[in-house]
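hey team, just a heads up i'm posting the complex here instead of the shared drive bc the drive is being weird again. everything in one block, sequence lines first with there labels, then the predicted structure for the whole assembly after. its two chains so it's a bit long, scroll down
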Amino acid sequence: MAGTRWVQTELLARYPEAGLRVYAVWFNMYPGDARSRWPASLLTDARVIQRWDEGKLVGRWYGEHMTAMRPRIAPGSTWNGEILWDSYLLYTGEATWDEAPTGLVHWGRTIVAGRETLRQDFERLFGAPRR
Amino acid sequence: MNIKTRALVAAIGICLLFGGTRPSWPHSIAPTADAASTLGDLKSIEELKTLFNEDRGKPRLVLLLSPT
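-- predicted structure starts here --
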């Protein structure tokens, strides 16, 4: 949750005019997780599209396609498993998704562990943040 | 002061209060929309793929999250 809050307050709020799209895909991973516990007030930015993924389809998909993504992992991040979660994946504007998405800039897990790389990538893409 | 002068002074006062600054918002209440506060069901990977390709031209950030 800390990583998600950081994305809202330190990235989206500080880049209010950046032309980007965010897809927030939520699914159960902890025993207490449930759709009814979705924190609606956490990601409030208009550029965010939010989806509930009951089958963990996206996390599994990324888990199965990890080999190609490994070289783009953010420093400080680690992950081994079948379902990728508590993670971010940043793509360029030119990226397209046919068999798999192209244009992966970096991905990180956890979001907190990879946030410095994400912050730097935002600066490269969008310039200095609003203070 | 005649009426014109009073009007001018009032206008200057308003400009001093509001002029020269653009609307701004604190970080906690950045632009919002209903879309961000709704949670649709993801039916398939194809749905995310379609959204992803529709937004080509913009950098895209995918977040994989659990609710607690």
